[in-house]
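Task 17 of the worksheet. Students: predict the tertiary structure of the chain below and write it out as structure tokens. Keep your answer in the requested format; marks are given for formatting as well as content.
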Amino acid sequence: SGTVLLIAALGLAVTGFGHATAAPGADWSRMIVRAAPGDSRVEPAPLNQETQAGPWMLTVLEVVTGDAATQRVTAASQFNESPADGFTYVVVRVRAANGGDRPLAIDGNDFAVTGSSGLVRRFIAAVPPDPALDGTVAPGETKEGWVVGGAAVDEQNLLLLFDSITLTGSWADRVFALQ
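Model answer:
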């Protein structure tokens, strides 16, 4: 029944064995779903490109890795420790504009780092450098700040995943290139 609802929602009529034809008055050009940058790991949104993520317009502005990232993170708080051997911090400056009609919360827990290995690393227990991307953003307002992630030192093709912990479902999930 889910398939029937989907077909009906798209304005399609099914004839024979799975052949879909447009229902009278249906506009196929409006039904084609094209992948946009940020929709997948294959085509991540590039650096400095504003990308819609549900009600958010997100832009990765700057990326710091390696020793420079470790220095920034350990200097941000006396409680931040150096990463374990074989790992590095990934510090990312993000601009988040609320294009929705209600206040939205955002923070570092909404993001994760991954790469060619496919391993996703999230919830890094480190205080980010100032200013942190952390808080509630009113409709039409923008917040900019740092998030901290982690990756193996030898991880290739670093990606930042936006997977909000407060927006349910995957409709707002996006992928950003970090290299």
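Marker's comment: Residues 1-23, 28-32 have pLDDT under 50 and may be disordered. The two ends are 44 Å apart (CA to CA).
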